[in-house]
């Protein structure tokens, strides 16, 4: 940042002036009743000036919020209100405002208990009504909206609920049949049982098919017998297992008459209703973690634990009372795929949560950058606002644009998910993998940048951003490691390519239709208007995806020609696989953005979204080295892109406040530095109460 | 600025050093706030802001009421004559005054502690509707054993206004929903318990308190608070008070829809025979369904709780204009023209057996879009959003957020 060193004498005299003013400040001791200061002259002490006073709002932020939140706005606001109104959500008054965020200074055990208490509060108020028992897209959207709001308060709370409803409840819904639905769904919804989801093991995470837990069938008693044969087969990271869960879905190899039928899911009780661990079950705690300490992750061992035959979740395969294995799907590969396909809800949830986390941190960091000043450009001038520094704009505003883009992407994914049909399962799997990786990586990057942009204030837990880094780090790992997901996308695209070429068919689905057309040609001279044209942006994104897919297929084929098997060929082609995965995600995200834009009829909202979309597209061109590496853009092009990004930064600067206001996150869920941080850090704030309250200051 | 103290003045003004006393003086109408009183109050408060002498303003009522609310009779009169815009103008002033009071003591806005003016409202009697608007937003609210507070609008085809969507939604838990939807009456002890009042002083000590405040001649909130504390006592919160049952209130009134609330209250009423719960049930069943929907879904839960006071009054003004215009539902208009209200809120004291016919009469006849329309700007020519007092030379959206 700029600091003037021109006239040191000026600086010294200015400092003296400031110090004098500091010393002469009356009201320093807030209880002195003598108001001795009679001067009303200008004080050089920093005054807090709310950004609302200086920033213009040039579009309707409520309408923008409707686009971003997309559905169930009133349900969201109701839940924000529910949390704000309860002492369980740890309201704290700072600088005349109430903020809610969990007390992360509590011990792990206390945080876990608070999570359960908050869940209890929400059960009483009907938050979870219909989360498992109601049918149709509307009920699903309500559930997703409320989950998002809960995640804005605390990631632990949302993960704890996600395990119970999405994983345990989802497994029963999707893997189970009517007998399971009747028995468990209602009981789950009102927390008569507390569920968890025992899939990963110490020795196997992403590779579910390699798990080592073994289940056999005893036809004499008509029971399954679940066993943990070795230490690497212990169930690991099972959310809810360490303290609270009464039941779990267990994933295990099913061994019938000496033949392994592959991975199946069973319901097992692990605690009685008083919380005592059941016989033949051993449970240990995963211990303190870098984040998410409000979730009780545990480890489970099964010592030939017996469960009734009916507890096999039998949507794709069953075992008859006399021990015959029955399945309509003969191929174990297909059986496994059909089995896991419906479980994408977790990734949908993570995607959306990551976007909201980025929104919180940007809203805080940008509001702070609009009120915090540092260094003067010239002596005796007021110091400059952080966000007036082009460098600060360049740090935050592209992240803001990406967050907007990913907001539209997440909404697209959500609607795809709630309206899904069996034919869409594959598309949902690929798109959710792509968006989950893209948004969670983006979120971590955004959190780090915002933390640094807030300087020391970013390190305080009360300002949320810094702490959220630890809370959200897990997102790039659970429900599929991001790097593995990227490779899966590339593999899926490879499959599409081969199927299209072999069958001489057109590409259909996943937004790959552009491959049926001729290769787009982009202008050799990139003017400002070309760069901002959505057709150009789409073309260059498609060009990259098309070329990388061709290269990937070529490289895999080459490895195969050299005698390597397909799996190993994929593994060796990891570099292009990674690039291709990103190219697919970026293009898909851009597509959702332009579609959202197209739905608008014009006006200031559409105009500003055009700028934001251009920023998203151009920053991707600037940052992703594959454009240069493979020559989709020349060095001259990239220079033009870079220049345009700078211009866009200064244009978006004037809308920054409106753009973060449009996130619709209530003030109480941001943090003190997003508001009057002078007042919240003042001595009188330390002293808490001055007597009397105004409702105006009780916000 | 009027400062005579003739007996026929609607607002008496007394000066003592840096202290001003504004006394609502329309005792036979329970100090119902007429147009003239509202605009006088507005002028008086604005004048004080320019007067560097003024440190403290005491607001009180003459007679047995602080104020029973806005002067509904004159509003009703205008509507019957088909002149809803004239009523809208009344509310415009009312809400501007509310906003002015709510932001009166914000030192960072006025930039200097010297300009801080404290407002002490002495609520020795009835405080309803508009009466709450000119008192609750101030820094200190002194209740007495004579205080009776209520926001009775849902029984009149209206909704709690004058910034009530702001202050009710900030009461503990969901007490605000309970108070706003049922129109229940709170006594001084309950007002103190829930935070509507900041102090409780026995009415016999009021003259001494006023004297002490005048003598202090200070705008230091800590000092003023200490002085009022000196006269305060901890009142006895009666055993049958609903405030003892906050958990029940929270359970019932936190529901997302008015139907959900009604169902929950019905369930509770079966379980226990407490007076307050059956009274609440009765109020909810007899209130205007549209009023309840507006008040809950939109005012208290959806909007008020998340907005600043400026945004709240701007929104309330839009809603009130839509109600006054009466195109979506005619409840308020009907209630008035059937002379349901005679003077201010007297009807709910004296004419308890009035039985208004609401239209729509059932919740399921009210679509979401009908409720939504109340929040839109009116497309009448010449109609504008509430203009907040231009005291800070700021655009409205900026003031609204503060």
Automatic annotation (TrEMBL), chain A:
GO CC terms: peroxisome
InterPro entries per record: ACOX_C_alpha1, Acyl-CoA_Oxase/DH_mid-dom, Acyl-CoA_Oxase/DH_mid-dom_sf, Acyl-CoA_oxidase, Acyl-CoA_oxidase_C, AcylCo_DH-like_C, AcylCoA_DH/oxidase_NM_dom_sf
Domain Acyl-CoA oxidase C-terminal residue range list: 539-670
Boundaries of every Acyl-CoA oxidase C-alpha1 domain copy: 343-493
GO BP annotations listed: fatty acid beta-oxidation using acyl-CoA oxidase; lipid homeostasis
Location(s) in or outside the cell: Peroxisome
Ribosomal protein as UniProt keyword: no
Gene3D superfamilies to which the protein is assigned, alphabetical: Butyryl-CoA Dehydrogenase, subunit A, domain 2, Butyryl-CoA Dehydrogenase, subunit A, domain 3
Protein name according to UniProt: Acyl-coenzyme A oxidase
Organism: Dillenia turbinata
Species classification: Eukaryota, Viridiplantae, Streptophyta, Embryophyta, Tracheophyta
UniProtKB/TrEMBL annotation, chain B:
Entry's Gene Ontology molecular function annotations: 3-hydroxyisobutyryl-CoA hydrolase activity
Coiled coil regions, renumbered to chain: none
Reaction equations catalysed: 3-hydroxy-2-methylpropanoyl-CoA + H2O = 3-hydroxy-2-methylpropanoate + CoA + H(+)
Domain Enoyl-CoA hydratase/isomerase: 20-375
Membrane-spanning segments: 113-136
InterPro entries assigned: ClpP/crotonase-like_dom_sf, ECH_dom, HIBYL-CoA-H
Key words of the record: Hydrolase, Membrane, Transmembrane, Transmembrane helix
Pfam families for this protein: ECH_2 (PF16113)
Primary enzyme class: hydrolase
EC number: 3.1.2.4
A GO biological-process term: L-valine catabolic process
Superkingdom of origin: Eukaryota
Pathway(s) served: Amino-acid degradation; L-valine degradation
Function: Hydrolyzes 3-hydroxyisobutyryl-CoA (HIBYL-CoA), a saline catabolite. Has high activity toward isobutyryl-CoA. Could be an isobutyryl-CoA dehydrogenase that functions in valine catabolism.
Similarity annotation: Belongs to the enoyl-CoA hydratase/isomerase family.
UniProt name for this protein: 3-hydroxyisobutyryl-CoA hydrolase
Lineage: Eukaryota, Viridiplantae, Streptophyta, Embryophyta, Tracheophyta
């Amino acid at each position: 940042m700029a600091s003037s060193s021109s006239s040191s004498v000026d600086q010294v005299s200015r400092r003296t002036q400031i110090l004098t003013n500091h010393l002469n400040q009356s009201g320093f001791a807030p209880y002195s009743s003598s108001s001795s200061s009679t001067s009303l002259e200008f004080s050089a002490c920093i005054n807090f000036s709310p950004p609302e006073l200086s920033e213009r709002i040039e579009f309707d932020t409520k309408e923008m919020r409707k686009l971003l939140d997309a559905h169930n706005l009133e349900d969201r606001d109701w839940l924000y209100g529910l949390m704000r109104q309860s002492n369980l959500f740890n309201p704290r008054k700072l600088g005349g405002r109430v903020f809610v965020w969990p007390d992360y200074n509590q011990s792990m055990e206390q945080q876990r208990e608070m999570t359960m208490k908050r869940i209890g509060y929400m059960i009483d108020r009907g938050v979870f009504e219909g989360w498992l028992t109601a049918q149709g897209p509307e009920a699903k959207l309500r559930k997703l909206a409320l989950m998002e709001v809960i995640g804005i308060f605390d990631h632990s709370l949302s993960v704890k609920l996600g395990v119970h409803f999405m994983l345990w409840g989802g497994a029963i819904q999707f893997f189970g049949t009517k007998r399971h639905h009747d028995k468990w769904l209602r009981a789950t919804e009102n927390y008569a049982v507390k569920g968890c989801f025992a899939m990963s093991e110490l020795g196997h995470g992403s590779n579910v098919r390699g798990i080592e837990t073994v289940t056999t069938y005893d036809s004499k008693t008509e029971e399954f017998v679940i066993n943990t044969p070795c230490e690497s087969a212990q169930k690991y990271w099972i959310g809810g297992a360490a303290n609270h869960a009464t039941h779990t879905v267990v994933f295990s190899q099913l061994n019938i008459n000496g033949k392994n039928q592959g991975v199946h899911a069973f319901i097992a009780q692990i605690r009685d209703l008083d919380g005592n661990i059941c016989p033949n079950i051993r449970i240990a705690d995963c211990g303190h973690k870098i984040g998410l300490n409000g979730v009780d992750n545990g480890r489970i061992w099964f010592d030939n634990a017996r469960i009734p035959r009916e507890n096999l979740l039998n949507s794709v395969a069953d075992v008859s009372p006399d021990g015959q294995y029955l399945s309509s799907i003969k191929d174990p590969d297909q059986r496994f795929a059909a089995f896991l396909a419906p479980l994408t809800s977790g990734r949908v949830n993570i995607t959306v949560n990551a976007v909201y986390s980025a929104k919180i941190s940007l809203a805080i960091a940008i509001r702070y950058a609009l009120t915090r000043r540092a260094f003067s450009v010239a002596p005796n001038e007021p110091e400059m606002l952080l966000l007036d520094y082009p460098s600060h704009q360049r740090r935050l505003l592209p992240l803001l644009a990406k967050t907007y883009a990913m907001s539209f992407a997440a909404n697209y994914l959500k609607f795809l998910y709630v309206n899904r049909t069996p034919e869409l399962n594959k598309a949902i799997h690929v798109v959710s993998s792509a968006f989950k990786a893209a948004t969670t990586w983006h979120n971590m990057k955004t959190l780090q940048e915002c933390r640094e942009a807030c300087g020391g204030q970013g390190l305080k837990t009360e300002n949320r951003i810094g702490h959220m880094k630890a809370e959200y780090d897990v997102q790039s790992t659970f429900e599929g490691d991001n790097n593995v997901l990227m490779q899966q996308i590339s593999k899926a695209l490879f499959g599409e390519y081969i199927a299209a070429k072999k069958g001489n068919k057109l590409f259909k689905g996943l937004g790959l239709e552009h491959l049926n057309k001729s290769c787009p040609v982009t202008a050799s001279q990139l003017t400002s208007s070309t760069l901002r044209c959505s057709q150009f942006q789409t073309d260059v994104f498609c060009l990259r995806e098309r070329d990388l897919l061709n290269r990937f297929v070529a490289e895999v084929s080459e490895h195969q020609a050299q005698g390597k098997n397909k799996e190993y060929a994929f593994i060796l082609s990891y570099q292009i696989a990674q690039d291709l995965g990103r190219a697919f995600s970026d293009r898909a995200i851009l597509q959702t953005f332009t579609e959202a834009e197209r739905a608008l009829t014009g006006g200031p909202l559409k105009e500003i979204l055009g700028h934001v979309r251009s920023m998203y597209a151009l920053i991707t061109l600037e940052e992703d080295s594959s454009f240069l590496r493979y020559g989709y853009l020349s060095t001259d092009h990239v220079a033009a892109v870079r220049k345009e990004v700078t211009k866009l930064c200064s244009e978006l600067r004037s809308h920054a406040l409106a753009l973060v206001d449009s996130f619709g996150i209530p003030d109480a869920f941001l943090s003190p530095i997003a508001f009057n941080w002078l007042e919240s850090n003042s001595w009188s704030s330390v002293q808490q109460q001055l007597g009397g309250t105004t409702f105006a200051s009780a916000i | 600025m009027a400062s005579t103290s003739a007996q026929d003045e609607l607002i008496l003004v007394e000066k003592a050093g840096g202290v001003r006393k504004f006394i609502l003086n329309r005792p036979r109408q329970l100090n119902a706030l007429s147009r003239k009183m509202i605009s006088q109050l507005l002028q008086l408060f604005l004048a004080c802001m320019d007067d560097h002498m003024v440190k403290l303003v005491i607001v009180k009522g003459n007679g047995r009421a602080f104020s029973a609310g806005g002067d509904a009779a004159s509003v009703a009169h205008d509507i019957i004559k088909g002149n809803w815009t004239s009523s809208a103008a009344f509310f415009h002033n009312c809400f501007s005054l509310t906003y002015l009071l709510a932001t009166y003591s914000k030192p960072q806005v006025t930039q200097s502690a010297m300009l801080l003016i404290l407002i002490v409202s002495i609520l020795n009697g009835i405080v309803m509707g508009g009466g709450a608007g000119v008192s609750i937003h101030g820094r200190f609210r002194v209740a007495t054993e004579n205080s009776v507070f209520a926001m009775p609008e849902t029984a009149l085809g209206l909704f709690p206004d004058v910034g009530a969507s702001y202050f009710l939604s900030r009461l503990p838990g969901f007490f605000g929903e309970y108070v706003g939807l049922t129109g229940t009456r709170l006594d001084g002890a309950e007002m103190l318990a829930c935070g509507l009042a900041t102090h409780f002083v026995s009415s016999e000590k009021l003259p001494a308190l006023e004297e002490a405040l005048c003598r202090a001649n200070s705008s230091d909130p800590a000092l003023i608070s200490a002085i009022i504390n000196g006269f305060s006592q901890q009142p006895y919160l009666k055993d049958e008070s609903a405030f003892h049952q906050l958990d029940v209130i929270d359970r019932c009134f936190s529901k997302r829809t008015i139907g959900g609330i009604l169902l929950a209250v019905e369930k509770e009423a079966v379980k226990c025979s407490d007076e307050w719960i059956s009274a609440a049930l009765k109020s909810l069943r007899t209130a205007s369904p549209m009023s309840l929907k507006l008040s809950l879904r939109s005012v208290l839960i959806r909007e008020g709780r998340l907005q600043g006071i400026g945004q709240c009054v701007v929104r309330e003004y839009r809603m009130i204009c839509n109600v006054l215009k009466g195109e979506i539902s005619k409840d308020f208009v009907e209630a008035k023209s059937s002379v349901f209200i005679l003077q201010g809120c007297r009807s709910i004291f004296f004419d308890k057996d009035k039985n208004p016919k609401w239209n729509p009469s059932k919740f399921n006849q009210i679509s979401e879009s009908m409720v939504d329309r109340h929040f839109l700007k009116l497309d009448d020519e010449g109609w504008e959003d509430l203009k907040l007092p231009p005291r800070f030379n700021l655009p409205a959206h900026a003031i609204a957020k503060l």
